[in-house]
Amino acid sequence: MATNEILEGLIKDPDRLKDLADEAKELALQHGALLRIFENPNSSEVITYTPFTLFPSPVPKAKFLQALALQIHYNLLVDRISQDPGFLEEALASTIQADDFTANLFRLYREVQQEGRTKSIVMGLNRSDYMLDQREDGTCSLKQTEINTIAVGGICISGNLPVVHRRILQMLGLLEESQCVPENNCIAGMTRALARAWELYGQQEAVVMFLVEDVQLHKLGQRCIEHQLWRRGIRVIRRKFEEVSSTGHLNGDKKLFVHSFLTYNSCLVQSWDVRLLMERSLAVKCPDISTHLAGTKKVQQELARPGVLERFFPDQPQVVEQIRATFAGLYSLDMGPEGDQTVAMALANPEKFVLKPQREGGGNNVYGEDIVRVLEEVKGDKRRAAYILMDKIRPKTEQNILLKTGQPLKLTSVCYEIGAFGAYVRQGKDMVMNECVGHLLRTKNSEQFEGGITARVSALDNPLLV
Ligand code: ADP
Ligand code: MG
After folding, report:
1. Is a pLDDT exceeding 60 seen at residue 203?
2. Which candidate among 188, 199, 250, 384 keeps its CA 20 to 30 Å from the CA of 177?
3. 282, exposed or middle or buried, with CB in 10 Å at 0-12, 13-18, 19+?
């Protein structure tokens, strides 16, 4: 790549590198690739740029398009799983014995199921993540790391970086390359889905509520979607769990009402109760609890069993094939001979696998010798069913410079993860929207196991399609 030679040159000329990096950071700030600062995450006074790469990463165009094209199938898959109580019951039976968080979700799910469903409008905003696994023959294949049906970050910032990378390439005279950074407008697509669900709900006075946490590092990004909704004449409110807990109630039709500005006692908040209240209501949830469960790592592993994808796409063998081609090896740790075999396999070659609990948001997975330590502790009883085992994907490494607040500029060996954003809306049995609405490229130091922009590991990136 031409950028590799330029990188070598820049590293030898620190003054020029600093100038270019400063220019890049200013461009990022000007174009809205913003993040609140970790030390002061609720401040409206100080902000910084989202960590990002100085150069876009070369990504094979065919693999990139493959990830985007798959997204409408993954949307359907998640949505169909969410409507299949028998599958969810069976798939998660052992996990809820071992993992409290999933057990709580499942308790709520059952409660709402028993009460009878109120919802006819369902929507999903998700992100399916992939890495390019390098085969020994030098080719590579797209492998899914996971699908996120709830922890879906990067929607708002990802669209702001193409212009930054294009400009950097132009400034360096790489005009042809600058045209290989694709457009990315997730906000428009995500907003369209929200607006569609709001229209179908059919009440002019209904609002879109963002349920937010106390720490709001990503508020500025979420604001972009809010603006787009307001511009369509849709009112938006932001409420914390405490506010929903203390003021939220359902009327006789199960419409959800939430007020604000009351005093509340945050110590008394039960977020599970809030979740149940919302779930029982007529409000369109994103995600609803069954879609949340469909995105668990245990479900991902169960989908890899022979015949399971066929259950969700009975007449579409080509779709089954396309989805299955993106599965890395996934193994159950349930009690029994199959799980025993998984344990033995992991203990024999821990460096070949990733051990995953049912958590989201980065920093929870287990690698290398830690796999041995954890499995030795839990392998004899049902606690091991809280985890799944997955083949470790071996992505190709590249050279780049990661721009992160306060960190020195240095040439780093990096690898990337491609995310495809999905948005869908269903009314009753009719899918009224099903789209891939954009992408996210995240790049990390290849020596780091885990990724994640919020976890301060990954940097926002763009594909340079080759
Ligand atoms: P989380 O829900 O915490 O985001 P992920 O499954 O996405 O969990 O894993 C977090 C990160 O760990 C990913 O972004 C990726 O960098 C790395 N990772 C996950 N699965 C694998 C795998 N099978 N092989 C290599 N790296 C992986
Ligand atoms: Mg993830």
Report:
1. yes
2. 188
3. middle
pTM of the complete model: 0.96
Distances (CA, A) of 231 to 198, 237, 288, 437: 14, 14, 26, 19
The response to whether 298 counts as a known ligand-binding position is no
At residue 233, the 3 state secondary structure works out as coil
302 known ligand binder? no
Pick from 458, 435, 443, 403: nearest CA to 25: 403
Question: What number is the average pLDDT over the span 378-389?
Answer: 97
Q: Is 356 annotated as a binding residue?
A: yes
How far does residue 451's CA lie from ligand 1's centre (Å)?
Answer: 7
**What secondary structure, in 3-state letters, does 26-50 show?**
HHHHHCCCEEECCCCCCCCCCEEEC
The per-residue pLDDT for range 321-361, each reduced to its tens digit, is 999 999 999 999 999 999 999 999 999 999 999 999 998 87
Tokens found for residue 353:
């696998």
Task: Give the pair of three-digit tokens for residue 155.
Answer: 């929607």
Which ligand minimizes its atom distance to the CA of 458?
1
pLDDT of 427 over the 50 cut: yes
* Domain segments of the chain as ranges: 2-315+399-465, 329-392
Query: For the domain 329-392, what is the CATH code?
Result: 3.30.1490.50
CA of 189 to the centre of ligand 2 (A): 21
Q: How confident is the model at residue 269 (pLDDT cuts 50, 70, 90)?
A: low
Determine whether the annotation assigns residue 40 to a binding site.
Answer: no
User: Encoding tokens for residue 48?
Assistant: 């910084």
In angstroms, rounded to a whole number, what is the distance separating the alpha carbons of residues 217 and 444? 20
Q: How far is the CA of 360 from the centre of ligand 2 (A)?
A: 7
Work out the angle at residue 187's Cα, subtended by the Cα atoms of residues 186 and 188, and round it to the nearest 5 degrees: 90
Q: Whose CA is nearest to atom 17 of ligand 1?
A: 450
Residue 361 CA: nearest ligand 1 atom is: 3
Q: What confidence score (pLDDT) does residue 68 get?
A: 98
Residue nearest to atom 20 of ligand 1 (CA): 145
